[in-house]
Design a protein that fits this description.
8-stranded parallel barrel; 14 strands; about 30% helix; single chain; alpha/beta; two-stranded antiparallel ribbon; TIM Barrel
Length: about 375
Amino acid sequence: MTLRAPLSILIVACMLSGCLSQDTQGLQIESHNSEFMPEIISAVDISYYPLISSLNHTFYDSNGDQVDFIQSLKDAGVNTVRLRIWHDPSHSGSSLQEVADFSEKIKSLGLKLWLCPHYSDTWADPGAQDQPRAWDGLNYSEVKDEFYQYTSDIVSDLNPDFVQIGNEINNGFLFPHGEINQNKTQFLELLDAGSRAIRENSGHARIIIHYAGLESSSDFYGELSSLDYDIAGISFYPLWHGKSIGRVGDTLTELAQQNDKDVMIAETAYPFTLDWNDWTNNIIGSEDQIIASLYPASPQGQLDFMTALKDEILSVERGVGFCYWGADMISWSGPESNNGSVWENQAIFDFENKLLPVAGVFNVDTL
């Protein structure tokens, strides 16, 4: 998922069999069954939480009792936390150092770490994949070297359980060098360099490739037949990707069979209300943006949508889980902020910071 400004958003193991692969350096890699990896990925993206926590918000469970935010997610059944990384952000948030610091808290609670480097200084998505400013002026070969070393450093320093090579890379990444329509060969070479960097610096991290939506996903992943990766992930938001949950299952089944890979929903979310809790325009604000006839914008509708989507994912033979994006994005800067959250009606805590029923979808006993 990509948020570019308050008023807009730009497009966010099959019951694991044990097998080993070996990279070009001779390091043995566990590509499936591993003690480091949960059987089913029950994840949240809470990349804004370091900012939110600095503002001293108080959170509550469904009974109204005060809880620790991250512990409450674990208690609900979350087993994996996804965090974005920006190379050199112009403002505070999602820098490598911040993510490194936050990841220590995540690991201390026994949660798995899923890293999502955008390979940009800001949001990367199908419409914008600007390379880091620090790499401007470098030729392709130099950019590939920087990219390889940067990825190696991230993996060796943070020791993640999952690494996503880029964010929603439908059209490529690291523009202009890795733009698919202009430089498909370079795009594939960059992906290969990223994969090698991960394999050579981790004996357990699983590699995720992330595509936004359903349309043309089969063609996209078909181009990656020679790439070493583990999980094909897609984003699914009814606003942008259609209103058929059944089609999600059909698409993931096709991707799993076509590519012999595990598959998952790398991003999704749904509103519990169409109201707002600050003066920042929200992404979702009307019934025509959601599947209102089946899943109204209510706490129960949010839970029912996620339950139906989870059931669809796990009906796929190699469906390995899902990630709820923006689970933390309450109105962090106050009720009158016009530069706050565009997502507070899709968070998993309500406007009083009380845990919503949708948290039940993460329970491993229901997966």
